[in-house]
Amino acid sequence: MEDKEIIRLYFEKDETAIEKTKEKYGHWLKTLSYGIVRDIQTAEECENDTYLKAWQTIPPKDPKEYFYPYLACIIRNISLNCCRIKKSLKRSAHICELSEELETVLAGGTDTESMIDEYILKSAINNFLASISKDKRIIFVRRYFYLDSVNDIAKNMGVSESKVKVTLMRLRQKLSEYLKKEGYTP
Question: How many CB atoms lie within 10 A of CB 129?
Answer without folding.
Answer: 16
